[in-house]
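Service request form, structural biology core

Requester: graduate student, group of Dr. S.
Request type: structure prediction, single chain
Budget code: on file
Notes: please return the result as structure tokens.

Sequence provided:
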Amino acid sequence: MNLYPTGLSELYKEIEALGDPLTGISDCIDFKRIRPILSNLYENDTEKGGRQNYDPILMVKFLLLEQMS
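Core staff response, request fulfilled:
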């Protein structure tokens, strides 16, 4: 039995009830439309190897979060 998803959804409901602006950000911004723009700027196709980069959409969300705080 896994209690993690149940506890997480209840916590999310509590945060949403407080009026957290992050809960509705995906409703306001269509991140799928941003991905093609970022794909031209963000490359990780080298033959040197190494760790993969973070998802560009995740990086945009980090920047939005930083601006909101």
